[in-house]
Amino acid sequence: MSRVEEFEELRPLLFSIAYRLLGSVSEAEDAVQDTWLRYEATPTKPTSTKAFLSAVVTRISIDVLRSARVRREEYVGPWFPEPLLADPYEDPERSAELADSVSMAALLLLERLSPLERAVFVLREVFGFGFPEVASAVGRSEAACRQLAVRARRHMQDGRPRFEADRHERDLLAGRFFDAFKEGKVDALQELLAADVQLVGDGGGKAPALTNTVFGSGNVSRTLVGFVTKMDAIGAVFEPHETNGEPGAIFRARDGKVVSVLALEILDGQVQAIRAVVNPDKLGHVGTVADAWALRREANEALRSTDAPGTL
């Protein structure tokens, strides 16, 4: 097998490692491309191509992550990962586990870890690498990596929800949610939301989004209905689509351009959180991005005689 064939075979794994470390589709793709360039320039073939490439993409991602963390401290409003509509890592036996590790909630928990803790956790706990491989990838001793893994697991477990959602029940509830959302039924939506549900938007200061998190089933259901009312007024549509392994949707303008991507966090039979990515810089990989400011002006003009709630 040629180097190109070996690399292409491992590309999905390399992207999945990089995305979990970086929370960015574009940065993960760049890290994978840089990994190929380094592999291509390597004079001798490594003993284990998988271990070598995984180590290279991990080191590149750690460097990118360290600089990205500084940028995120200056980010305007809540920061969410770039939405991932399909994880290319194909492993049917572990598909559910891998989906859980790429959820918005899991990636936000990973943000609490140091770059090294994050790398060790992803390689060891998500992809099952042995500690010798992990140590080689992050440039630390096996003993140090074991300590990093313990700290990372503790942080992740402390932040995880107490009740995991059954995937079939989760999908059924999501279907009911989007039916109620599409029909603009406040009461039906409210029944599906946890009492302390949160609605949060990530606009990054580059698109209209919620200026503050909306809390509570009543407030969130009314805000959602106000949003869908405005969407209807300008002919925009939404299409349910799994997002980061969770139920979600893509909102599009009438011309098909992307407005935002939504992800639902469903646990214990209720919607616990609704996260909307509106920042155009994070949506380019989904499709051509709409001018959200222009759409908001159009919607407000169409509904200027009403007092519609805030937008996502």
Automatic annotation (TrEMBL):
SUPFAM superfamilies: NTF2-like, Sigma2 domain of RNA polymerase sigma factors, Sigma3 and sigma4 domains of RNA polymerase sigma factors
Subunit structure: Interacts transiently with the RNA polymerase catalytic core formed by RpoA, RpoB, RpoC and RpoZ (2 alpha, 1 beta, 1 beta' and 1 omega subunit) to form the RNA polymerase holoenzyme that can initiate transcription.
GO biological process assignments: DNA-templated transcription initiation
Similarity section: Belongs to the sigma-70 factor family. ECF subfamily.
Sequence ranges assigned to domain RNA polymerase sigma-70 region in this UniProt record: 7-69
Alphabetized GO MF terms: DNA binding; sigma factor activity
Domain RNA polymerase sigma factor 70 region 4 type: 105-156
Keyword list, A-Z: Sigma factor, Transcription, Transcription regulation
Classification lineage: Bacteria, Bacillati, Actinomycetota, Actinomycetes, Streptosporangiales
InterPro entries for the chain: ECF_Sigma-70_Domain, NTF2-like_dom_sf, RNA_pol_sigma-70_dom, RNA_pol_sigma-70_ECF, RNA_pol_sigma70_r2, RNA_pol_sigma70_r4_t2, RNA_pol_sigma_r2, RNA_pol_sigma_r3/r4-like
Pfam families found in the cross-reference section: Sigma70_r2, Sigma70_r4_2
Protein known as: RNA polymerase sigma-70 factor
